[in-house]
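Posting for a labmate who doesn't have an account.
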Amino acid sequence: MPVKSRLNEREWIKAFVRWRSDIVRCVCGKENLVDSAGYYVCDCGKQAKIPAYLITKNKRIPLYPGIELFACHTSDSSYDFRTKTGEVIANKNNPKIIGIRNLSDNIWYVTSADGKVSQKGKNEVVRISIDTTIRFDSYCDAVIVKNDSEHVSKKMLPIIFLIETSGGMNGVWIGVVNHVMAETIAKMQSIDCSNTQLKITVLEYGDDAKWVYSGLNDIKSVAWEELQAGGSCRLDNAFNKLNEELNSTNGFMQFDMFPPVIIVIALREPIDDAYSAIELLKINPWYQKALKAAITIGEDMSAIAHEFVQSKKGVIEVESANALEKAIPFLTLEAIKVSLDNDLSPEQNKQDALDEIIQGFVQAEKEGGDL
């Protein structure tokens, strides 16, 4: 059997330099990987398109404020990925105007699209303009090209429901859940989020826990599958299955997704040790970042729900079918809004924002006598 040759050090350096060149920093401070079409969608909700690229003989560098050039970028004969030779900066008075500052000791020879030639020494700036060429040294010429891609990267937002289907839910409660979930999905399908792909899945639990849908499904193509109630209530099974799937390696999560929205709808206190399962969830990074909320029918599940949500305000306790009918669509749609809210500053906690919205709803419904 022939032995495959391994990559040598220079090839590894080229690969890592290319990967590092595609990392840009959002205005919120988080780093993002630019996709093949020159777009990124940050966890903060901001979406951006790389306006232009610097193209050399064998490299393509996105031109975006904060991007750094190294000797290996500005000299085709160099493998030096540590010595900084340039940086992309934005004009302080007009951030839409960007340029490349020369940090090297070389003179850069710049030819604009209309043929005018200029020289840029150390700390001088080349304004980024389409079809401008730059001779960094005798071994490296580059041209600035526009990113003409019209592709819009869609970052996925998973919406995960955990719904109790024990015998206690039989009759009115499961009937309301089936009716309202079908209506809620229809409302989710009409949400205008052109740059975000909503994904949904449902985990039902009673004697056992099982996924109603296989993996995460595009909300546009989902039809509600009616649930049947019966049996005992084992919540640890559900939390353990959730923990397995909140995984970017073996589960249905992907590295570039928004943190999931997780909503629990429950009635009975489980017969198992749900708290131990929650302790396992607490060390899961996706659970830690998730936007979590719960609706409990009565107070039996209240303590466990608060522990799962990790908040004293993130639980809606209902006592009537009418209240449950209101709570499910309200909580679902508000959680999606908060998750996609671009106006929240990086310092603001989205869980806190959702909790406050929930408390406002609870207070209003209590005053109206509906909870």
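Reply:
Got it, the structure tokens are right above this. The chain has nine helices and 21 strands.
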